[in-house]
Write a structure and sequence with these properties.
The complex is a heterodimer of chains A (100) and B (394). Chain A has a single domain, classed as Transcription Regulator spoIIAA. Chain A has 3 helices and 5 strands, in the order ββαββαβα. Chain A has helices at residues 25-37, 55-70, 82-91, and strands at residues 2-8, 11-20, 42-46, 50-53, 74-78. In chain A, strands 1, 2, 3, 4 and 5 form a 5-stranded mixed β-sheet that branches. In chain A, a hairpin with a 2-residue loop joins strand 1 and strand 2. In chain A, helix 1 packs parallel to helix 2 (55-70). Chain B has helices at 23-35, 47-56, 73-82, 99-107, 120-161, 165-172, 216-231, 239-253, 344-357, 363-371; strands spanning 12-19, 38-44, 61-65, 90-94, 112-115, 177-184, 192-198, 203-211, 260-268, 273-279, 285-287, 293-295, 314-317, 323-327, 383-390. Chain B has 2 domains: 4-140, Response regulator (Rossmann fold, 3-Layer(aba) Sandwich), CATH 3.40.50; 161-390, PPM-type phosphatase domain (Phosphatase 2c, domain 1), CATH 3.60.40.10. Classes of the chains: A alpha/beta (100), B alpha/beta (394). The interface between A and B is medium-sized, with 23 and 25 residues.
Chain lengths: 100, 394
């Protein structure tokens, strides 16, 4: 995976591109600490350019959500489509993390 | 074991073989090494003698002359590497300076070259350097071997959780069904698990779970789920309530980024149905005897994330001669080319094609061969397959 983050309308938007799998654990840690350290009260994880996600990738989203909640922030997912949408639908992630 | 950072003058018990046809050279090299603290030295006067020693005993390092009668140093080096498959450092000493000559030595498997006439300090430094390097490689290889042994032991323990063919038949057979199973662990341990429970005289439960991620953490979590599922005897006949209760248990033990997908079904052949609940597991496929098929509704909040999650009980009719195929995501997910991941319809076609020729115990192996291009592809993630067959009319 690769990621980039920008602040848009007072919200931290982190875009994840490529594959989000078991091998991205280390890389995703940086995303999580960026979420924990940011000044914004809301975080959007954009999966619009995420090609594929595995179970470990879902785990990372849950971790990001947990870190955001613990630092008093709102976190949502956006741009869910293709393979990612299937996984989200199957595992009902939308009941755990809001999807925009 | 010798101290890896032995200083000059301290004892180093590394076994060093010095090969040179000139006695004066052997004496010179021997005395330099001894003065530096190496005192486990063996000497050979030509290539043939050197190889005899190498075949017979463990040598940590060889210091080898090139020009010798009977068999030269290059040939010794080559045979030590190729025929005897020895990996210890071989230091070649040569008075010849041209680059081609040195290249030939390296091509034959030399680790390094020292120039003649022998310079004491250079010889000792290079000897220490190569021995230290070798020790580091040995220690890494040892560590790796131990890790692999541990992973194998853990994999065996994981497999031992699964019921044997006979145990499964004892539960399923009297209840008018046949269940064949297949499990192959990924090359780095994983978190797949299946269980079969007796419920009453006519019904049994099938539970399939996949812990997120892989590796040691997923395997340990699989053990925890196994314990929870075995102990959770209440609600076994009502899949929704059973999964809801299991989820609460898992929420308490799984770390925030870990979760499980699962399917639990109660097979009631006398009653003509399977009652089930699902939590994001791949949809089991019902292959009807009459030719139709359906994928069971499998959506549900993944287990271990939210204590508030509730799972509903669904029901699907089954008739004599029907088959139900359960599988883990490793069967259809294609991470290299996501668009080539298999859809339920593709899986049905594969399963039906295999059943044409392999309806017996060979079914799973045959299916795996049909779906995967290579042995390596089957080891990326845990693979679990279960085929339930409802006994025919006769």
């Amino acid at each position: 995976m690769d990621y980039r983050s920008d602040v848009r309308d007072g919200r931290l938007v982190v875009s994840i591109s490529g594959m989000l799998t078991f091998d991205d654990h280390e890389a995703f840690r940086r995303v999580v600490s960026e979420i924990a350290d940011c000044q914004e009260a809301a975080v959007e994880l954009s999966l619009a350019t995420t090609k594929m996600i595995d179970s470990a990738g879902i785990g990372m989203l849950l971790l990001a959500k947990d870190k955001a909640a613990k630092s008093g922030k709102f976190l949502c997912l956006s741009g869910v489509k293709g393979h990612v949408a299937k996984v989200v639908e199957l595992s009902k992630i939308d009941q755990l993390i809001p999807v925009e | 074991m010798a101290d890896p950072i032995a200083e000059a003058g301290t004892e180093d018990t590394a076994a060093i073989l010095v090969v040179d046809d000139l006695q004066s050279s052997r004496l010179l090299i021997g005395s330099i090494l001894q003065a530096a603290g190496f005192n486990n030295l063996t000497f050979a006067a030509d290539g043939v003698e050197a190889l005899e020693i190498l075949e017979r005993r463990v040598v940590d390092m060889v210091i080898l002359d090139i020009v010798m009668p009977r068999k030269d140093g290059i040939q010794v080096c080559r045979e030590a590497r190729e025929r005897l498959a020895l990996a210890m450092p071989i230091l070649i000493q040569t008075g010849l300076q041209d680059a081609d000559h040195r290249a030939t030595a390296f091509d034959a498997g030399a680790s390094d070259i020292v120039s003649k006439p022998i310079h004491a300090h250079e010889l000792v430094s290079r000897t220490r350097l190569h021995l230290e390097r070798r020790r580091m490689i040995d220690s890494l290889q040892g560590y790796r071997r131990r890790m692999q042994d541990e992973l194998k032991a853990a994999e065996a323990m994981q497999v031992s959780l699964l019921k044997s063919e006979r145990e499964v038949a004892a539960i399923v057979g009297p209840r008018k069904a046949r269940l064949t199973t297949f499990y192959k662990a990924s090359n780095q341990l994983g978190g797949d698990l299946w269980q079969v429970f007796e419920i009453d005289a006519t019904r049994f439960g099938i539970f399939m779970v996949d812990l997120s991620g892989h590796g040691v953490a997923a395997a340990i979590n699989a053990f925890r789920v196994h314990m929870l599922a075995e102990d959770q005897v209440d609600y076994r006949s009502t899949p929704g309530a059973w999964l809801t209760s299991l989820n609460v248990g898992l929420c308490q033990i799984l770390p925030v980024e870990h979760f499980a997908t699962a399917f639990y079904g109660v097979v009631d052949i006398a009653g003509g149905c399977i009652q089930y609940a699902a939590a994001g597991a791949p949809p089991p496929l019902v292959l009807e005897k009459t030719g139709g098929w359906q994928a069971l509704d499998h959506c549900g909040v993944i287990l271990g994330c939210s204590e508030a999650a509730c799972y509903e009980t669904h029901s699907v009719p089954i008739a004599p001669g029907d088959r139900v195929f359960f599988y883990s995501d490793a069967l259809y997910e294609n991470f290299d080319e996501p668009e080539k991941s298999l859809e339920p319809a593709d899986l049905v076609a594969h399963v039906r094609a295999v059943l044409e020729t392999e309806a017996g115990p060979g079914f799973h192996e045959a299916l795996v061969q049909r779906v995967f291009d290579s042995e390596a592809a089957t080891r990326r993630d845990d693979l679990t397959l279960l085929l339930l067959e409802v006994a025919g009319d006769g």
